[in-house]
């Protein structure tokens, strides 16, 4: 049997999903700091594409204002470019896949299966409160677009989470707690088993 060279090795990918405002970006920043992943937010990449003056800019801007999902082809190209440019081989892909089309196209184009899906579960009222006090000047952080984003999340994104759940790949986190408490739960998922045993035995000794 042939061996796989480093150049042929597929990168490790974790999809980070959850409703709008559930805290995906906040927790990804913590994971990057502690575990050496590169964080790629599909929404951030799309917003950067608008700013760059690309030919797709107006289409993307209109979709984001309406809370709609941009065609996979566009988003996947941005993700692939960012992955290549990062020089890393482990990624947190935040806010993607957002629908079945995103999921199937990413798998077909990249042949990458996620190691697992980190899913931030948060009640809608809490997500709404967080988004309305975010103050980052996002054009979609207004109550009208927020409602549309929640509908898209329920109708198109949750089925993707259910798909991965049926494959035993979802790690669900209670995201309604404080940033620190949520990160404790996240850390428990990212800490290798041997480390947990080490810490546990130190605590006993
Ligand atoms: N556990 C938490 N408790 C309270 N506020 C939080 C918590 N996590 C994040 N926030 C705040 O809520 C807002 C939304 O968080 P964040 O941007 O990380 O969410 P997101 O899931 O990436 O949202 P979006 O899908 O809209 O990009 C931010 O202002 C952030 O500081
Ligand atoms: N896979 C994706 C991800 C995002 N979008 C669009 O961007 C908006 C903002 O996304 P955030 O993750 O930053 O909240 C989202 O509402 C979509 O309009 C997308 O099309 N495809
Ligand atoms: Mg975000």
From TrEMBL:
Top-level division of the source organism's lineage: Eukaryota
Supply the NCBIfam families for this chain: UMP_CMP_kin_fam
One GO process term, biological-process aspect: 'de novo' pyrimidine nucleobase biosynthetic process
* Protein name as it appears in the record: UMP-CMP kinase
Q: Where does it live in the cell?
A: Cytoplasm; Nucleus
Question: What is said about its interaction partners and assembly?
Answer: Monomer.
Which species does this protein come from?
Populus euphratica
Alphabetized SUPFAM superfamilies for the sequence: P-loop containing nucleoside triphosphate hydrolases
Catalytic activity from the UniProt record:
UMP + ATP = UDP + ADP; CMP + ATP = CDP + ADP; dCMP + ATP = dCDP + ADP
Q: What is the lineage of its organism?
A: Eukaryota, Viridiplantae, Streptophyta, Embryophyta, Tracheophyta
């Amino acid at each position: 049997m042939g061996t796989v060279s480093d150049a042929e090795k597929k990168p490790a990918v974790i999809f980070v999903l959850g409703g709008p405002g559930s805290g995906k970006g906040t927790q990804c920043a913590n994971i990057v700091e502690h575990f050496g992943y590169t964080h790629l937010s599909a929404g951030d990449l799309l917003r950067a594409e608008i700013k760059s003056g690309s030919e797709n800019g107006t289409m993307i801007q209109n979709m984001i204002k309406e809370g709609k999902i941009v065609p996979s082809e566009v988003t996947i190209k941005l993700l692939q470019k960012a992955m290549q440019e990062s020089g890393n081989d482990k990624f947190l892909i935040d806010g993607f896949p957002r629908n079945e089309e995103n999921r199937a196209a990413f798998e077909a184009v990249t042949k990458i299966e996620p190691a697992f899906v980190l899913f931030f579960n948060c009640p809608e009222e809490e997500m709404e409160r967080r988004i309305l006090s975010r103050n980052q000047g996002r054009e979609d952080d207004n109550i009208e677009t927020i409602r549309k984003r929640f509908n898209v999340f329920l109708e198109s994104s949750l089925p993707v989470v259910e798909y991965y759940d049926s494959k035993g790949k979802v790690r669900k986190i209670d995201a309604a707690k404080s940033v620190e408490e949520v990160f404790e739960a996240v850390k428990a998922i990212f800490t290798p088993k041997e480390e947990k045993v080490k810490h546990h035995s130190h605590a006993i000794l």
